[in-house]
Specification:
Pfam families: DEAD, Helicase_C. About 35% of the residues lie in helices and about 10% in strands. The chain has about 550 residues and is of the alpha/beta class. Strand 11, helix 16 and strand 12 form a beta-alpha-beta unit. The protein starts with 16 loop residues before the first helix and ends in a 33-residue tail after the last helix.
Length: about 550
């Protein structure tokens, strides 16, 4: 996503030096001392009846077969203010110019350099102007013409690259051009036997699957912007919220559906959603969905119901990595697809400064206070811990120390999680303690500092955590607390630091040598991270990433 404010001041960076040197290295090893609200609806509560407003909320009764969906509907000043007031201000698009992009596949459409280079219609172009997006990001330059040319797409791209608009803009543009087609007639006549009270089943024209509730909501909020003054009505369904409320909102009409896999299967089995006319399928954060065990639900949705088969529907997959499991999914779901590999701002050391410091478990809280004091209490700081219990304990500790903080983890209710994210984004609680549930997909624009209070057990999780800062051209700082418990990622962490041209602590090199004897023989995996400079081999030579040690 984009709509990120420019934070080039790097507040507090130069003052952190004392904090890093205040905890001594272990002498025996000689260790050196070293997501934008966008003016959308409030996130503190579930948007009751708020799925509409971005189109005709009574489309079920009022839509006519002869309506021209390509023409904008009447403006709504209140809604326009709500959707676009926060706007996109201060992005430094010059930082995008050096992002590496590789497109491979048969007859790949030529990329665009401006939004005017491709015909997307009056509605889309006016909404782009309202969002104040001046020119496309690299993933948009390539993905938009690929999707507009009705080609399937497999894109390796991070969440900070602007990929949400890269698929929403062309998909909505095509829906506006083509209209509702047979879906409208099916919805009108569709079975009074559907649902307990004879409610009509909804037949969305486009489906976006996302792994988490937070990411689904963010995609939905972006869809509301680009569906403004159109007849398209976006909806979102996800677990952890009142299903009755979601069903009532669906029954008001749904053309573009954003969903988590589990909740969508539930809706389908209740007869509330039919995918018979779903001509556009997007799988966002596909690798994350597989990591979370959603593959059976995804295959149930795509292959074992009424969704049109590949070759008839258009399918787009986005993934941060390209392991063997994702390659298999792409083979099964996509038809003659184009592979797009897009780097991300942060590919070089100038955007995200990574620090790894040796901190024993008993010293972590004290060291954390030093870091927070050095960077300033008002700088947005994201602190990652491994367990839900640890998140609650650390939040309580910081609160007792006088810090405005909040937390999110899997045991908190959806309402509590949304409220916590809203308080963090708004700056009322500038410190957010989180488990991995927040590591991927969250688009929080001005996070200055990511702290791995507990390092994760695998390097991919590390990459996604630190990617919460330094987004879309802004500066970021990532600090990780390392000790004997983290030996399993020593080699991979060293690889990442070397790739990103970061300062490598001498003790980390020593540890890597002790564990593997591999210093000087660094092997870079075929895993697309924000820090990898890459030229992909041809698809025939793709292999899964090497296993972490």
């Amino acid at each position: 996503m984009f709509g990120v404010y420019d934070n080039k001041d790097g507040g507090g960076w130069n003052t952190t030096k004392d904090a890093y040197t205040s905890f001594g290295a272990r002498p025996d090893r000689g260790k050196s001392a070293f997501f934008n609200n966008g003016g959308s609806a409030p996130r503190g509560s579930y948007p009751r009846g708020g799925f509409g407003g971005s189109g005709n909320s009574r489309w079920v009764e009022e839509s006519r077969d002869d309506e021209d969906w390509s023409k904008p509907t009447q403006a709504n000043e209140r809604l326009e203010q709500e959707l676009f007031a926060g706007g996109n201000t201060g992005i430094n698009f010059d930082n995008y110019d050096d992002i590496p992009v590789e497109a491979t596949g048969q007859n790949c459409p030529h990329h665009i350099d401006s939004f005017q280079d491709v015909e997307m219609g009056e509605i889309i172009m006016s909404n782009i102007a309202l969002t104040r997006y001046t020119r496309p990001t690299p993933v948009q330059k390539y993905a938009i013409p690929i999707i507009k040319n009705k080609r399937d797409l497999m894109a390796c791209a991070q969440t900070g690259s602007g990929k949400t608009a890269a698929f929403l803009l062309p998909v909505l543009s095509q829906i506006y051009t083509e209209g509702p087609g047979e879906a409208l007639a099916a919805q009108k006549s569709g079975g009074q036997d559907n649902g307990k009270y004879g409610r009509r089943k909804q037949y969305p024209l486009a489906l976006v699957l996302a792994p988490t509730r937070e990411l689904a909501l963010q995609i939905y909020e972006e869809a509301r912007k680009f569906a403004y003054r159109s007849r398209v009505r976006p909806c979102v369904v996800y677990g952890g919220a009142d299903i009755g409320q979601q069903i009532r909102d669906l029954e008001r009409g749904c053309h573009l559906l954003v969903a988590t896999p589990g909740r969508l299967v539930d809706m389908m089995e209740r007869g509330k959603i039919g995918l018979d006319y779903c001509n556009y399928l997007v799988l966002d954060e596909a690798d994350r969905m597989l990591d979370m065990g959603f593959e059976p639900q995804i295959r149930r949705i795509v292959e074992q119901d009424t969704m049109p088969p590949k070759g008839i529907r258009q399918t787009m997959m986005f993934s941060a990595t390209f392991p063997k499991e994702i390659q298999i999914l792409a083979r099964d779901f996509l038809e003659e697809y184009i592979f797009l590999a897009v780097g991300r701002v942060g590919s070089t050391s100038e955007n995200i400064t990574q620090k790894v410091v040796w901190v024993e478990d008993g010293d972590k809280r004290s060291f954390l206070l030093d870091l927070l004091n050095a960077t300033g209490k008002n700088s947005l700081t994201l602190v990652f811990v491994e367990t839900k219990k640890g998140a609650d304990a650390l939040e309580d500790f910081l609160y007792r120390e006088g810090y405005a903080c909040t937390s999110i983890h899997g045991d908190r209710s959806q309402r509590d999680r949304e409220e916590a994210l809203h308080q963090f984004r708004s700056g009322r609680c500038p410190i957010l303690v989180a488990t991995a549930v927040a590591a991927r997909g969250l688009d929080i624009s001005n996070v200055k500092h990511v702290i791995n209070f507990d390092l994760p057990s695998d390097i991919e999780e590390y990459v996604h955590r630190i990617g919460r800062t330094g987004r879309v051209g802004n500066l970021g700082l990532a600090t990780s607390f390392f000790n004997d418990k983290n030996g399993n990622i020593t080699k991979d962490l060293l690889d990442i630091l070397v790739e990103a041209k970061q300062e490598v602590p001498s003790w980390l090199e020593s540890l890597a040598y002790e564990h593997h004897g591999l210093v000087g023989q660094l092997n870079i995996p075929l895993t697309l991270s924000p820090y990898t400079s890459f030229l992909l081999p041809p698809p025939s030579q793709w292999v899964a990433p090497r296993q972490t040690h």
